Amino acid sequence: MAHDYDLLIVGGGLAGNCLALALQGCGLRIAIAEANSRAQLQASAAGDRALALAAGTVNALEALGIWQDIGAKATAIGHIHISDRGHFGKTRLSAAKAHVPALGYVITARDLEGHVADLVAQSPITRITPARVVGLMSGSEAMNVSLKQDGDSLNVSAKLVVGADGGLSSVRTLLDIPQHSTDYRQTALVTTVKTTLPHRNTAYERFTASGPLALLPLGKYHCSVVWTRTTDEAEALMLGSEADFLSELQDCFGYRLGGLTLTAPRRAFPLSLIRADTMQADRAVIIGNAVHQLHPVAGQGFNLGLRDVMQLAEALSAAAHSQQDLGSREVLSRYSQARRKDHARVIGFTDSLVKIFSNDWLALAAARNVGLTLLDHIPAAKAVLAKQAMGLAEG
């Protein structure tokens, strides 16, 4: 029996588009269903956020043919400076000492998303947009998908449906996949600042009693700010004036980069750890933020999601090459099993950082500062941390 597509990807963001690009040479009939128009995606406030790309992620983007024409818009991270506000502990990582060109790169989400979307538009991949998924029914040979497009109903079938539609995933909801959520009672305040002193390609992570403050290098004199505060503190900072916000930010970070000036709107994002119970269902699999949403403390969210993409592409490519059914339980179980260890490692690492550094209990503060100071003087331990930061730790 013929079906409309071999693969239907729900979600035309970075994860969905990268998966389609990774598989476009496999002879598969691929379609992407996206709820928003290209103009809506480009205008989204989420495009303002900076993405910290681990070195392993850049390697993957190069393999997909994405990085070659967008890398010039990214800023290399040559150094990472980690400190604990009000305490002596600190450690520093260096690309030169790790014998790599960069520990990672920083790029605005809008630049990367727009470039990837352009590559998809130039490919033979079918785009169904704007279209919302409103129903899924699994059969023995295909998933039947009901879509709403401009008020009209559209029904298509595919051997496999991939949910790459973010934290509020319609695919996950329609598949009745439960998820567990931990509310950190924190909010990330995101903006961009101009500095009077050059950052010299240094990314700063400063831990405070309310949560971490990260300044990520953009260009020569700009930094993307991800400032975690308690929910109440964040609300007060958002309601207050820009001058008051900037004054508190300057006080929290200090004057290592001189004076700071806001160059972008302030935005607030509540923080939770969210993890789906499973990655697969009958003829369906979910990836990226549809499976896991992390605290931004270690900048691992997109990096982990892209590893989902690359490993799923590898599994589906192998299945297509051997003429296996893409949506078979065997193929999807093999992929899910392969991803579990990486998910557990990164989620555990991120969650532990939040719990260890987001409080000022004296004994714990002393222990973590001794740890940071020792880490700064133990090359082998710093090499392990550098590999974690670069997304090259073994999963």
What do these coordinates show?
The structure is a single chain. This protein is 35% helix and 31% strand. With 395 residues, it is α+β, with helices and mostly antiparallel strands. The strands form three sheets. Strands 5, 6, 12, 13, 14, 15, 16, 17 and 20 form a nine-stranded mixed β-sheet that branches. Strands 1, 2, 8, 9, 10, 11, 18 and 19 form an eight-stranded mixed β-sheet that branches. A three-stranded antiparallel β-sheet has the order 3-7-4. It is globular. α8 packs antiparallel against α9.
How far the N terminus sits from the C terminus, by CA atoms, comes to: 39 Å
How would you sum up the major sheet?
A: 9 strands, mixed
Percent helix range? 25-40%
Percent of residues in beta strands? 25-35%
What's the helix count?
Answer: 11
**Sequence stretches where pLDDT stays below 50 over 5 or more residues:** 359-395
* Anisotropy-based shape: globular
Summarize the structure.
With 395 residues, the protein is of the alpha+beta class.
What are its keywords?
single chain, about 400 residues, alpha+beta, 9-stranded mixed β-sheet, 8-stranded mixed β-sheet, 20 strands, about 35% helix, disordered C terminus
List strands and helices in order, with pairings:
Elements: E1 5-10, H1 14-23, E2 30-33, H2 38-43, E3 50-54, H3 55-63, E4 75-77, E5 79-84, E6 90-94, E7 104-108, H4 109-121, E8 126-128, E9 132-138, E10 143-149, E11 152-163, H5 170-174, E12 179-195, E13 202-207, E14 212-218, E15 222-230, H6 231-239, H7 242-253, E16 260-262, E17 267-276, E18 280-281, E19 284-286, E20 292-293, H8 301-321, H9 329-357, H10 362-375, H11 379-389
Helix pairs in contact: 1-4, 1-8, 8-9
